[in-house]
Amino acid sequence: MDTLNVTLTVFSNCLVATLPQEATLDVLADLRRNMLVELDEGARRAVVFDLTGVQVLEAAEFDHLAQSGRMAQLLGAKPCLVGLRPSVVAYLVAADVNFSELLVARDLQTALDQIEAST
Question: Which of 4, 9, 54, 71 has its Cβ near the most Cβ atoms within 10 Å?
């Protein structure tokens, strides 16, 4: 399922949302709507937000993504971020964003391993 260049796929009973290079608030709002529909239609053990292609992620965009993660968690899916670029990490840490509610992994396989270990 494509949503403003976000691809939602199901892999190993996890919903994987691959974000485009420009993860704007409009893109993230569309992702949220479609994620909630998908989680309502079928129980998933996790939602993995794949940011591998994202070049820039502002604090407001991260907060929107984190809120989507909290929504997923309330619906029984563990939220996880993967593929953060070093430049994005540096910016988010400097902006003092809160990562505590999200599982963070370097890549999809590591995320799946961490999700499996936590269930």
Answer: 54
pTM flag (> 0.85): yes
Tell me the residue range of the domain where 113 lies: 2-118
pLDDT tens-digit readout, 24-43: 999 999 999 999 999 999 88
CATH number at residue 78: 3.30.750.24
How many separate domains does the chain show? 1
Q: HSE-up of 6 (CA within 13 Å, CB side)?
A: 26
Instruction: Give the per-residue SS3 of the chain.
Output: CEECCEEEEEECCEEEEECCCECCHHHHHHHHHHHHHHHHHCCCCEEEEECCCCCECCHHHHHHHHHHHHHHHHCCCEEEEECCCHHHHHHHHHCCCCCCCCEEECCHHHHHHHHHHHC
